[in-house]
Design brief:
Elements: E1 3-7, H1 10-17, H2 24-29, H3 35-47, E2 51-58, H4 61-69, E3 82-88, H5 94-102, H6 106-115, E4 116-122, E5 130-135, E6 145-147, E7 152-158, E8 161-167, H7 180-196, H8 203-210, H9 227-236, E9 240-245, H10 252-260, E10 266-272, E11 278-289, E12 311-318, E13 322-330, H11 338-341, E14 347-351, E15 357-370, H12 378-394, E16 403-410, H13 411-420, H14 426-433, E17 439-447, E18 450-458, E19 468-473, H15 476-486, H16 491-497, H17 500-506
Antiparallel strand pairs: 1-2, 2-3, 3-4, 4-5, 6-11, 7-8, 9-15, 10-11, 10-15, 11-12, 12-13, 13-14, 14-15, 16-17, 17-18, 18-19
Helix pairs in contact: 1-3, 7-8, 8-9, 16-17
Amino acid sequence: MSFTVLPFSRDSLYSSLANRFATAEYIAARSSDFLQAAYLAGYLERLGAKTILVENDYIDRDYLTDFASYYVTCFEKYDSRCKRLHFFSSTFDTASFERWIRRRSDSDDLALQKAYLGFIVARPLPQTIVGRTALKTYEPDGAIDRRYRTLRTYEVNLFGLPLRVDSLAYQQQDTVVAACATVALWSAFHKTSELFHHPLLRPSEITADANTVQGGTRAMPSSGLRVEQVCAAIRRAGLEPLAQSVQKQTLLMSTIHGYLEYGIPVILLGRVEEFSYSGHAITVTGYALGAVSAPIGEQTLANVTSIGRRIQKLYVHDDNIGPFARSVPVAVPVNAPDYVSDYAPFALQAQDANGVAQATFVPSVFVVPVYPKIRITYSEAHVWAGHLRQMFGFAGVDADGFEWSIGLTSTQRYKTLLRNRAAASVEDATRLTEGQPRFMWHGLVKRGPVFICEFLIDATGVSRSCPLLSLVWHDTPTEVIFKSGVSKFSKVAIERIYSKLFADVVYQ
């Protein structure tokens, strides 16, 4: 039969993922070798999965490209066809589904769409069985401010039935055509291809592009990518890599927040304690904010208290664990070698769907694939926020309780935000029609629930000459104090300390 309908359970998931190399019993017995399958079982249980529908003969383009690049020339005869597993939060049987697809009904289609949780492609390989996967994220929780900024909509056609799921593609590395850095890039490219309209590459293509920078080993089987190879693959996709070593003073959480606000995934390269601190790569896809600063996190630089300090968890695509795996900042392990512990500000401890601790990852480098016109980095935007914070102090504004949020945006998104405000001001109306750079850093300054001010930084400009575009006040008492204090200083003196453009903005 072309499809199979099963009640969801851990056993039925394993049997649906199984193939002639890896039976359901083999997967269950060797759980340490199939951590991704166990993670997905727990994840789907948390999503409320009730039914699995298996497409028994499915052609997956990502796997087919990898098959043609490597597996087809192996002595062992690997299959070129996959299975695709669909998950629903409703209960139905084979007869019901056959009736639904043969007799179209808007109400039935709507009910199936509402219950649709996403899909997993099962690859016909001996161990790396989890292929392209797109599953829903957890529903909003009042106690946890979860923000998944990197999602895109995947259109699914199931025997003529149109379905959609908002997710970001994930897959397990096979260490043949795709090592961990390759699949981290592959996941990130799923979103950046939508944002910046570059071709969506297959894992084998990414590995080949990365190996235009020659490493010490052969391209395939792939044993992993160096930082410069990751950067080469990003450039081959038509983007520019922002790669920076992670140091004690690195504003890592704030940087992640800044780029995720536009939807750009951040790739972290680092080392895993449980694997003798061998190299690994993960893709950051979201974060969770707490009401107060996280117990372990980043430092404060230039007296700018960033919203990134309140990030309690990151949600990451970790091919060793699964999609949207929760990662909590923890202290760097005491047994870490000096070349790890001397630099890392914190480690990330991954958790499975039930909150059980998994591997401990220590970041060493972050890489962000950005559009070439995005030239000002988050750290440079933070520097100018620090200058603005210093001006607040000069002017007599008590800014100790201010929280700063700096996120990448575009002029289209920003002007949409202005139009959507409940009561647009005269200044808002002016900015709606004025020319702006395509990409900007949008800064928000708050004290608790009070909106103090906002500022824009030209992300396409030159940091040294001051990319600050505007400063808009929203709290009148603070504005009065600031302008009164600034008036006591010579504008020429401020120009000499910072720049003329900076002085023009603060004295406007």
